[in-house]
Amino acid sequence: MITSAEAVEAMVEVVPCEEVPESLEKKRIDYLAERKRPLRARYAYGIIFLITSLWAWFVRDYAQRVLPELHYMKSCGSGGNDCFHTLGVLRVSLGSFIFFFLMFLTTSNTRKLCEARNAWHSGWWGLKFFILLISMVVPLFVPSDSVQLYGEFARVGAGIFLFLQLISVIHFINWWNKYWMPDEQKKQSCSLGLFMSTLFYIASMSGIAFLYSSHAMKSSCVLNIIFITWTTILLIVMMVISLHSKVNRGLLSSGIMASYIVFLCWSAIRSEPANEECNRQKQGNVNGDWSTILGFLIAICSIVTATFSTGIDSQSFQIKQ
């Protein structure tokens, strides 16, 4: 009968000691490499979002002159007008919806790094870009009535997306607040946090004044006045809550969120038709100007920030008990 000591010696002879650390180290390296793939995937999806956003901008303002071939497509209507401007953007949006909904269906409920669905989520980019291209071409053959119907549903989806985006932006703002606000234990200076808080609130108040002067010049602009006034009330409420003794979290978080809310209000109001009497900014400037570029850049930054803050921490949408 073999004793326990003899069994241990036999195991040592079968598996050399130096091979065990090497095997564990190899597994650790493979695991870390697998963990980095989702981070690269976020960059890739961010690039896809940037490409589709630039394409939508191009289709809305410039494609009618650059792509005359679309004029001959039956689904694009007379002169190809149904594939440009607003309907053109809706077609790009429909293509993006097809692509990302397909990604959702094929990667939903992925829980482990070793699953095939995770490999599909983090790789196969050549095939994915080909699917994206097909997704962008398919809406060009969809009748205009169906595209307009999709646009009505897209309004609801945009509202839900904006709500989720706000939640993830709040998560990012909390991280930003911890990074910029001083640490009492380390006796750091609060000058940077105070300066940035003041800067964001000045920007917010300046934005409110600009909205009143450019989009609520007349008492007949009731809807614009309601939106701007409610935004102002939200700013005041956030500032009061931040200064309350039971909260005592400083003004930086509320200042950043105030600036973001003012931007959302501005984005909503400036989408009025150019011929509206309350939209003095767009009159005589159909294709947009610096404000279009600024709004486009801010929107991209906010959505990409929301995407990365959500992807870094999977608990962004979990409510703590």
Give me the secondary-structure topology.
Elements: H1 4-14, H2 19-61, H3 63-66, H4 85-107, H5 116-122, H6 125-137, H7 144-180, H8 191-215, H9 222-243, H10 252-269, H11 290-312
Subcellular location: Membrane
Family: Belongs to the TDE1 family.
Pfam families: Serinc
Kindly describe this structure.
The protein is mainly α and 321 residues long. It has 2 domains: 30-180, no CATH class; 189-284. The chain has helices at 4-14, 19-61, 63-66, 85-107, 116-122, 125-137, 144-180, 191-215, 222-243, 252-269, 290-312. The chain is flat. It is found in: Membrane. It is a multi-pass membrane protein. Keywords: Membrane, Transmembrane, Transmembrane helix. It comes from Prunus armeniaca.
Q: Give the amount of beta strand, in percent.
A: under 5%
Low-confidence stretches: 1-20, 316-321
- SSE string, helix = H, strand = E? HHHHHHHHHHH
Overall strand count:
0
Q: How many separate domains?
A: 2
State the end-to-end CA separation: 58 Å
- Number of alpha- plus pi-helical segments: 11
- Characterize the biggest β-sheet: none
Compute the average pLDDT: 74
* General shape: flat
Helix content: over 70%
Instruction: Give the structural class.
Output: mainly alpha
Q: Over all CA atoms, what is the radius of gyration? A: 27 Å
Protein name: Serine incorporator
Main location: membrane
Pfam family, one: Serinc
Keywords: Membrane, Transmembrane, Transmembrane helix
